[in-house]
Amino acid sequence: xxxxxxxxxxxxxxxxxxxxxxxxxxxxxxxxxxxxxxxxxxxxxxxxxxxxxxxxxxxxxxxxxxxxxxxxxxxxxxxxxxxxxxxxxxxxxxxxxxxxxxxxxxxxxxxxxxxxxxxxxxxxxxxxxxxxxxxxxxxxxxxxxxxxxxxxxxxxxxxxxxxxxxxxxxxxxxxxxxxxxxxxxxxxxxxxxxxxxxxxxxxxxxxxxxxxxxxxxxxxxxxxxxxxxxxxxxxxxxxxxxxxxxxxxxxxxxxxxxxxxxxxxxxxxxxxxxxxxxxxxxxxxxxxxxxxxxxxxxxxxxxxxxxxxxxxxxxxxxxxxxxxxxxxxxxxxxxxxxxxxxxxxxxxxxxxxxxxxxxxxxxxxxxxxxxxxxxxxxxxxxxxxxxxxxxxxxxxxxxxxxxxxxxxxxxxxxxxxxxxxxxxxxxxxxxxxxxxxxxxxxxxxxxxxxxxxxxxxxxxxxxxxxxxxxxxxxxxxxxxxxxxxxxxxxxxxxxxxxxxxxxxxxxxxxxxxxxxxxxxxxxxxxxxxxxxxxxxxxxxxxxxxxxxxxxxxxxxxxxxxxxxxxxxxxxxxxxxxxxxxxxxxxxxxxxxxxxxxxxxxxxx
Length: 604
Description:
Helix 2 packs antiparallel against helix 7 and helix 6 runs antiparallel to helix 7. By secondary structure, this protein is α+β, with helices and mostly antiparallel strands. 75% of the residues lie in helices and 7% in strands. The protein is rod-shaped and about 230 Å long. It has a five-stranded mixed sheet.
């Protein structure tokens, strides 16, 4: 996983993931917590709803009892305010039932509450009938009943006046019997005792009997009719009273009982539902807490593992690069560069480390070259001091001899010795010129350009024609030479030095002396081979011949600087020169020129 992150995501993306993923996980935990607590909130809302409904049921029962009390007050005492309050309580209870049914839609409690509402409606409808019957009864008692009683009383008083004092006692008795009717009637309406009905009926019969015994039918006919109406209105009032008492005692009581029963049933049902919900809530709380703890632990573990992986994906390459830079800072050229291909900050550090390593390699190479240059310089100083000292010593020796010969008057012998001094000085002058030439390589006249080697070597052959003819030496140049990117004068100097070396060392009377120049190429290099048919160069001397002042045969004229100059010129061009053995025993000087500036320098 760490390697995959290092290969796939850049440093900034990994750091961003280190923040983003924990944030997402935290959001997921919040969602899980929200879902769990939202479900608990729904359960608690239902508990609150049922608790409120239970409280409403308790209030419902109390309101029902209060409505019954007010209804009885109205029925037995006739207070209109009590009847109005019954209507108000009914309206309040009906609204509460409607609201509760909406909250308990399509539940068992809603069915029970609907049934309680129907019984409440029936109770109130019965109360309205009772109220209507009582109003009729009050109308009969207060109006019609009293009118008939007053009319009967007036008729009896009129009979008394008509008969004079002869039947005063009978009229008074009849009037008293009539008054007993009203008295017993009101006693009944006040006490609802059935005995007063019989007493009132008996008083009416007594009054009717006294009226019949009082005189002729013509005089008592109207009184008898009034008594009949009086009795009819009383009995109707009694019937009305019995009717609303029946409604009150039976219908309203039954509906009130059913209403209260349904209310109690609803309370019990709500209590069971509440207990069930409470148990479910307790189970939900326990299960959700366990689930939340499990998910939280898993997600936190994921965050820890992911953070550990992200941290390792950052620290591992940083640690590797730190170790690499520590080695590179110590000058190591063998420090391993971590493989990191992404184009990010770590990729930039990897490139910087690779560049640092290349610099160390170049520095080490430069150090080796410097050490070799120091060795060469030391050899150069030693050789130069020796080679420059030798002509000087020779010259001083011959000058001393010339002085002695001159003192002895031997002029001819002195002139002979002077010629040797001149040759020693000429050799020293040549040595100095060659050293100056060596020092100039790479400092002046080293501009490069495309150089057609065919034309260059053709011109070189023409310029050396007389020299070659005098030495009986053959120069063979194959066609198809490449075009080099090189300095013309220095390249020409290389071939001049090789030719001069061949003229000095090649001896082959059988085949004739010759130098054969050919060319080939590969993807990176142009290869130029200068092959002679001389004695060749022993393998142990093939590197030494390019050393300063080194000569295979000290008896052959020369300073030993020509091949050293050629070596330096080839290095300046980014190529090299080396000595090899020819197939037929001669020597081959193998020149390599790079095809482009990016071609690595050959080792050798």
